[in-house]
Structures are given as structure tokens and as C-alpha cells.
Design goal:
4-stranded antiparallel beta sheet; 47% helix; 11 helices; 251 residues; globular; alpha+beta
Length: 251
């Protein structure tokens, strides 16, 4: 059995420095087709992909994200939860579909569909020799992103992906993930707090050592501290409002 895909996935890391070389239209088409081959709940295909190579649009999105690699990349994708086409079908149908795609379940289905597509694209891109990084920062101002991309009702911009040929001095490496035993639960969830705490303590040390070796001791934070700092910031508290404006979470 070939371990090519396994090794490719294990070597994944986010790339944030790209050469100024555009990705060919042929490769973009292949990437999108690979994404479309992902599983989709009940064949709904509740997503769209917006490809961006217009420098002005990239600059506008950079103002939302704050990240330079929104502009400095070979290509930019934005992944959109999309029930607009379903709403068109609903206008011609004898059935009432609107309750379904405006519901919390509809939100989950569309988000999962788009995420599966994106991961297919990410893996295919890395197999082609490109690097990539996801951009959740596009949700810093959803309303502005909707304006920039001219998104209709019943669509929602979930995240972006910058990709391209990594710079020669790009030296990222895979961050250590949680131990297998900490994320894999046989038959039933292991909620024993003592064993969870012990696993977290060991993992915190692993992450701290990783950062220390990468930064010559300048950064030594643990995973728990990093998570606590991020999640206590309570970012993007307008998300429910923005989802409602977009026609979601009505039920």
C-alpha cells in the first residue's frame, strides 16, 4: 500500500510566504474539480467557490483580514455556503424548501459541504507542489466581504484560502497535534478529567518545546495558554446577526 497521501497530509503546514507567480487557469480548474469530488450531504452541493486574482479585490479583502498574504499569493479562494441556487429551485417548486435551508441544520450542512470541498482543494494543491493557508480572518467583517463579492441572500462567506508556490526561505513545519489517545475515543467518549488533564499537561510541554526550538527560546507558550488567550477574546460576536441578515438561522 502506498503511503503517499498519508505522508502528504502528515507534512501539512500553513504557508504564509509565496512567490509572485500566478497559478495557471488549468491548475485552478483541476483544483476546483478535485474539490467538487468531495462528499456532499444528500447531494445538495450547498457551496460555491469564488476565485480571486483581481489585485483591487484582494486589497479590499486584505483590509478586512489584516493579513498581507491575502494579496501576496498565487491565487485566492473564498468558500461560500450557498443556498441561493436552492432558493431559485424553491421559487419553481411545489414544495416549501425555505425552512430547511434557513434552519440551523441547513447551516451545518452547508458549512460541512464547503469545508470538505476546501480540504480536497488543499490536499490537491499541496500534491501539486503549492503551499496554502486558510483565512478565517475574512469573517472579521462579514458584511463588508458580502459587499465586495456581491453575495446574494442565502449565501455566506465562511473562509478563504491563499495559495501559491512557497518562497525559497519559507521554512514552516507541521505543528504537533494532540496525541492520538487524546482525540480518539473507542466506542464511548472518555470524559475522565484526571486523564484529560494529564494528557493536556504532556501536550502543553510538547507545544512549548516546539515553539522554543522554532524561535530560539523567544516563544514558549503552551497550547492551553494559546487556546485560553484566543477564546477569551470573544471575537466576532456579530456572527449570529450576520447570519440572520444573510437568511440563515431562522428556525
Amino acid at each position: 500500500m502506498s503511503e503517499h497521501v498519508y505522508n502528504l497530509l502528515k507534512n501539512h503546514h500553513s504557508v504564509r510566504k509565496f512567490k509572485k507567480e500566478p497559478i495557471s487557469e488549468a491548475h485552478i480548474k483541476q483544483l476546483v474539480e478535485a474539490g467538487q469530488s468531495a462528499s456532499t450531504s444528500s447531494y445538495l452541493q450547498a457551496y460555491s467557490i469564488i476565485g480571486i486574482n483581481d489585485p483591487e479585490i484582494k486589497e479590499e479583502l486584505k483590509e478586512v483580514s489584516g493579513q498581507p498574504y491575502v494579496v501576496e499569493n498565487g491565487y485566492l479562494f473564498v468558500f461560500v455556503m450557498d443556498y441561493y441556487r436552492h432558493s431559485i429551485i424553491n421559487e419553481e417548486s411545489k414544495h416549501d424548501m425555505q425552512t430547511s435551508f434557513e434552519s440551523a441544520e441547513g447551516l451545518l450542512v452547508g458549512t460541512i459541504d464547503a469545508t470538505l470541498v476546501a480540504q480536497n482543494i488543499a490536499t490537491t494543491a499541496e500534491d501539486m507542489g503549492y503551499g496554502m493557508v486558510y483565512l478565517g480572518s475574512l469573517r472579521n467583517d462579514v458584511e463588508r466581504v458580502r459587499e465586495i463579492l456581491d453575495l446574494p441572500k442565502h449565501t455566506f462567506p465562511l473562509f478563504g484560502m491563499a495559495l501559491g508556490i512557497p518562497e525559497d526561505d519559507e521554512n514552516g513545519s507541521p505543528k504537533p497535534r494532540l496525541p492520538f489517545e487524546h482525540v480518539f475515543h473507542a466506542n464511548q467518549y472518555n470524559s475522565d478529567k484526571d486523564s484529560q488533564r494529564e494528557a493536556l499537561k504532556a501536550y502543553d510541554q510538547t507545544v512549548s518545546d516546539y515553539y522554543s526550538s522554532r524561535t530560539s527560546g523567544e516563544r514558549t507558550e503552551s497550547w492551553s495558554n494559546q487556546v485560553a488567550n484566543f477564546m477569551s477574546a470573544k471575537q466576532r460576536l456579530d456572527m449570529l446577526e450576520q447570519l440572520n441578515k444573510s437568511g440563515f438561522i431562522k428556525k
